[in-house]
Design a protein that fits this description.
heterodimer; A: mainly alpha; Rna Polymerase Sigma Factor, Chain: A; Arc Repressor Mutant, subunit A; 2 domains; disordered N terminus; B: alpha+beta; 2,3-Dihydroxybiphenyl 1,2-Dioxygenase, domain 1; eight-stranded mixed β-sheet; 25% helix
């Protein structure tokens, strides 16, 4: 995943349909695994969003997400482009990884493994996953101070007081930043799904 | 009681969400409800450090995957077969023209020397490579006997004569099923030009180029090829009433050669053959055991082959080779000729390097440059009126004794700075243009 390596083939003169662009990226990564980075960047939030609601906690979500991408990288040469988005293949890998983990947990606890180890076909659920992935990406586009508040509040689960101390702002100002961040995310999500 | 601000109300809902992750969405004013819903999703926001760490882990895996699975390199160089004739001729460039004119050869590679002679060249005839080079003192001429299968023996024969070859015999229908002609070129090579007329060549056609041998004692030669190179006899071995081998085809690897006992005008031509094999070292040893003598022990060549040479008891030269790396023609580097540092004042720089540091002058052109040797590496100090010390160079010089260096600089009245790093101590001198000379002594 070296930088500066031409991973897309010839420069794109006109915007290509996303599917075509993705197909080229996959072909490039199949030839040269160092080109996998772009596929990872495009799909990280999706896989994480899919996994996080199917496991018990953040640590497990990270383990499974990591496993999915390592499996994807290892098996990339076997991936055949049939017009189905790359994400669908990743979701399948993710569903299997979650199922494996549940089975393993079942063996360890002596409890029967839950049966729902098949990729989630429910389009509503999958749309929620996509929406959550979009939301996660939008957080990276927030102004830095809003972004810091969101990360400290929701990822690090710090209290408003702790954040205020850390950022040397008043608690009211931090609440305002949190409010504006959520408003901004809401606006972006509406535009994205308009 | 004053109404609480929206940001306060939102934070209260967020606080509830965070303290009771499994609870339903807390109720909120209609205006806030969508934000609370987003806040609920944000509890699953991935850690940025995790995303970066995973990316870097994948990066390591992918680079390991790339390194661990290099494209397998064939032991045979691209375009070559197991056996390739190597013709050493006087006038290789002219010979190349002859190959093109007579046989429609395409030149693949030409490595000329400054005197115009060819150190190495390759031509393709019908998908088979012929290598050739100019003879010299070390490599006297080694012509070859070659059997070409072409689509029209008569037409090729006519072209060969037009290109300067001499006819030994004109095309004739042979009883072994070929229409065949025989010519000699002015470089000493002999060419059978044949077209199958009453036999069916194997799929893919007959081999376009096959070397032909007329050794004395063909039976022993055939045994040598079996013992040394795993050659195998294809078909029958027709013999004369006296028992001499009239003609035999033997296969080594993916192509064939032809052998007939020396007789009459068909006398041994001590040709050289290039043999691509899976394991040069093993085959070299095997060839020696089979009676060959070494002309070159196995060694790695700059063009990516491992190569060795043997000469058999019949006078033929064999170059054994295994391609290790597929590399393009290497740059024929002999030495570093110079690198340049710039000075705005040539005289001042000369005083520093030549009078002061006393580096020997290799050559100079007044007002333009002078070239000095630093530990054998030529450094050209080049005049550039516009040079103002931007982006100065650093020249690192390893010394055996930094103490002696220090004294030597003191004696010369040259100022220096000193320092030490983990594994070395150093003295740094700046030249009048700002270039830095570092004398280093490893611990």
């Amino acid at each position: 995943m070296g930088q500066g390596t031409p991973c897309r083939g010839e420069p794109l003169k006109a915007p290509k349909p996303e599917a075509e662009d993705e197909r080229q990226l996959i072909a490039a990564a199949q030839r040269d695994p160092s080109c996998f980075a772009e596929l990872y960047e495009r799909n990280f939030e999706r896989v994480y969003a899919f996994v996080v609601r199917r496991v018990r906690n953040r640590a497990e979500a990270e383990d499974v997400t990591s496993e999915v991408f390592h499996r994807a990288l290892a098996n990339l040469r076997r991936f055949e482009w049939r017009g189905v988005p790359f994400a669908a293949w990743l979701y399948r890998l993710a569903a299997h990884a979650v199922a494996d983990r549940r089975q393993q947990a079942g063996r360890e606890t002596g409890l029967p493994a839950p049966a729902d180890d098949i990729p989630d076909p429910d389009p509503v659920a999958m749309r929620q996953v996509e929406e959550r992935a979009t939301l996660f990406r939008f957080v990276n586009e927030l102004p830095p101070d809003q972004q810091r508040v969101v990360v400290m509040r929701f990822v690090e689960q710090k209290s408003i007081r702790e954040i205020a101390q850390h950022l040397r702002r008043s608690e009211g100002a931090v609440k305002q930043l949190q409010f504006r961040a959520l408003q901004s995310l809401r606006a972006r999500m509406r535009r994205a799904h308009a | 009681m004053p109404k609480r601000s929206l940001s306060d109300q939102l934070d209260q809902a967020v606080q509830l969400l965070l303290s009771r992750p499994d609870s339903l969405l807390p109720s909120a004013e209609a205006e806030l409800a969508p934000l609370v819903s987003l806040a609920a999703s944000l509890r699953d926001l991935p850690r940025e450090e995790f995303k970066l760490r995973l990316k870097s882990d994948l990066q390591r895996s992918s680079s390991m995957a790339t390194q661990a699975r290099p494209e397998p390199v064939s032991y045979i160089r691209e375009g070559f077969h197991t056996i390739t004739p190597y013709l050493i001729v006087q006038g290789a460039a002219e010979f190349s023209d002859f190959l093109k004119a007579a046989f429609g050869a395409k030149e693949r590679l030409r490595v000329p020397l400054p005197d115009g002679s060819l150190m190495h060249a390759e031509a393709d005839i019908g998908g088979y490579v012929i290598e050739f080079a100019d003879s010299n003192e070390q490599f006297p001429p080694r012509p070859c006997e070659l059997h070409l299968y072409v689509s029209d023996a008569d037409a090729t024969y006519a072209r060969a004569l037009a290109a300067g070859a001499t006819s030994v015999f004109a095309p004739v229908d042979q009883d072994y099923g070929d229409r065949e002609a025989y010519v000699r070129d002015k470089f000493g090579n002999q060419w059978y030009i044949a077209t199958p007329i009453s036999w069916t060549p194997p799929a893919g056609g007959p081999p376009a180029v096959q070397p032909v041998f007329h050794p004395r004692n063909a039976d022993q030669f055939m045994q040598f090829l079996k013992d040394a190179f795993d050659a195998e006899i294809l078909g029958d071995v027709p013999r004369s009433p006296e028992g001499a081998v009239l003609h035999v085809t033997m296969r080594i690897g993916d192509n064939t050669l032809e052998i007939g006992e020396a007789h009459g005008q068909f006398q041994p031509v001590p040709c050289a053959l290039h043999l691509y094999v899976p394991d040069t070292d093993a085959l070299y040893q095997r060839a020696l055991r089979a009676g060959a003598t070494s002309t070159e022990a196995p060694n790695d060549k700059p063009y990516g082959d491992r190569s060795a040479g043997v000469k058999d008891a019949f006078g033929f030269q064999w170059f054994l080779a295994t391609q290790l790396r597929d590399i393009a023609l290497p740059l024929p580097i002999r030495r570093l000729d110079f690198f340049t540092i710039r000075t705005a004042n040539l005289e001042r720089a000369r005083r520093f390097y030549v009078d002061g540091l006393q580096f020997p002058v290799l050559d100079e052109k007044k007002g333009e440059y002078f070239r000095i040797a630093i530990a054998g590496v030529p450094v050209c100090v080049d005049f550039d009126a516009g040079f103002g010390g931007q982006q100065p160079n650093q020249i690192g010089i390893a010394v055996s004794h930094l103490g002696v260096t220090r004294e030597a600089l003191r004696v010369r009245g040259i100022k220096f700075a000193e320092g030490r790093r983990e594994n070395e101590t150093w003295l740094a001198v700046k030249d009048p243009d700002g270039h830095e000379i570092l004398f280093l002594e490893e611990k």
